[in-house]
Specification:
about 70 residues; alpha+beta; 2 helices; about 45% helix; nuclease; 3'-tRNA processing endoribonuclease activity; RNA-binding; Ribosomal_Su5_D2-typ_SF
């Protein structure tokens, strides 16, 4: 699992906060992914103001679109 959080998201503090939230959200979903899955998540600027719950919903939607999971955690 990799995360791309560019300067467009915010300053260093904001980028690290977004990275930590994404890492936590993905850790909860790793068991749902097929073995050997490699993934890179790119955070867009709105991630800076999103709540952890919103990030989780967005991740769930992306995983469903990719056909990697059937539901939310």
């Amino acid at each position: 699992m990799g995360f791309v959080v560019s300067k467009a998201v915010g300053n260093s503090v904001v980028r690290h906060r977004v990275s930590r939230r994404l890492r936590h959200q993905m850790a909860e979903r790793l068991g749902q992914l097929p073995a050997g899955t490699a993934m890179v998540v790119r955070a867009l600027a709105p991630a800076a103001t999103a709540t952890s719950a919103e990030l989780g919903r967005d991740l769930d939607a992306a995983l469903r679109r990719l056909g990697l999971t059937g539901g939310a955690s």
